[in-house]
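HUMAN: Quick job: go over this next protein and say how the chain folds.
***
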Amino acid sequence: MQPIEGLGENFRFLVLEVSNQLQSSREFLGAPSHALYDKIVSRDDYIDNLKNIIENKCFSTIHREKDLSKQAINQIRSAQIICVNLERIADFCVNIVRQVGYFHDPAFLGRFEYKEMIDHILECLALIQPSREKGDLSGALTICRAEFELDRMYKKNFDRIMAELRTGLHVEDLITALFIIRYLERIGDSLLNVGEALIFAIIGEKIKIEQFQALQQTLSKSGINAPLSEIDFQSIWGSRSGCRISRVSAKDQRVDPAQGSIFKEGNVHKIRREKENIESWASIYPGLGPKIFSYHEDGENASMLVEFLSGCTLDEVLLTASEETIENAWFVVRETLAEIWKTTLVAAPAPSASMRQLSARLDSVLQVHPGFKRAHRGIGETSILSTEEILAACRDLESGLFAPATVFNHGDFNLNNIVYNHAKQRIHFIDLYRSGRGDFLQDVSVFLVSNFRVPVFSPEIRERLNQMIARMHAFASQWAAEHGDATFQARLCLALARSFYTSTRFEMNHDFAEEMYLRGVYLLEKFLRHKDQPWESFELPVDVLYS
């Protein structure tokens, strides 16, 4: 790895001092003495000072050197993470030797296999410097796996201690031994952080050991057997699904930008569901979603490698493209949706579910914006319903509201989940975890509000967004009219209220979030005022869509 001036020497000293501290602790546990105790405790201050020197060097280098490469910055960040965790290991050593004073007989600890744990930790500490200098992934992975091995050793000792505690003998000594074994187990957590920091320095992305192993297995299943050090791994930020999403491709090769793959890793139920939905879309509209290259499950997690779809997301098109390109993009979106709705249409009543979805996400909204929970109020004889009351009332009314037919929906039809390929004049759908059969207004409402909530307020861009909203609303209205959908406007009112209200949890600009919240509440109240009247006569206040 590229050396950072003044960092390497202090880093080597820190690794050496922590190793010596652990070795001294091992000796102390076997043969306690005041001199050795004082040495261990006093060296802790020196280790803290080394850590501070390295941290200051890391931060000052990043601040001062304006032309650092991304790789150099990653190395500095990695070094800072490692030194913090090494200092924490040294602190654990001090905690361990302080526990010895609580033993009636210090030799009591020898009944348990603590030496094996310390020896394993020392082996891993010895790997840190060579792994860092050589960019050795194998060494980094060995350090990461120490956490699992130390957990296993801890569990073995823990079970023995619990069994002996049940006898009622040597209770104080057993508890003290448990504390020491527990501190050694916690060192495994710090070693895991060290190993993952080394991986970060080598491959250039923060990735946990479970995700790293999933990536290895998934790439192997897809037929890519190159070492991960030769794979370019770039996180794709902005996912709110809880899944890790990254782009992978060959390093140092001039390839078409369209080549490469998307690696997704996360909860097995989410990844499996998305895989099934991608396969469903492939049968409904081939080429609309990505191809699946490989899929792998491992316990509660799963991962898959899918095709990277070239093009621009629709929000990028609206923000940067020409008017002609925007017109072309909308034409392709409209024709694609019309074909999907036509081929997947099932004429059978389906209950509206907007209020159930809103209620399920209300807690997430209130965590970000606690003020968006309205209390019940009364002014004279007029009552203003609380948030819970208005949602309950709308939910009761919605239970009698049905869509006349269903289609296969994207499920999260935001602008950034639609990829437009101008050269090929086609669109692609991405992030298909929520796809499924339902009211077509599920996708329509999400699309409309995703235009509204683009946080750009220049008149030119807002006009583009308003035009896209008008296009989609007109298209959906025409579709509803052609298919005899008489309650279209009432259902769209609730769907928009849901989307406005729940979108606030992603918006930290309070004024803008409040604007969406108030529009959502306005739509809910408008819906309630139509109670006891035919839903076919409901009129949506269309102006609420525009800003």
Observations:
- The longest strand covers residues 244-250.
- Residues 1 and 489 are 62 Å apart (CA to CA).
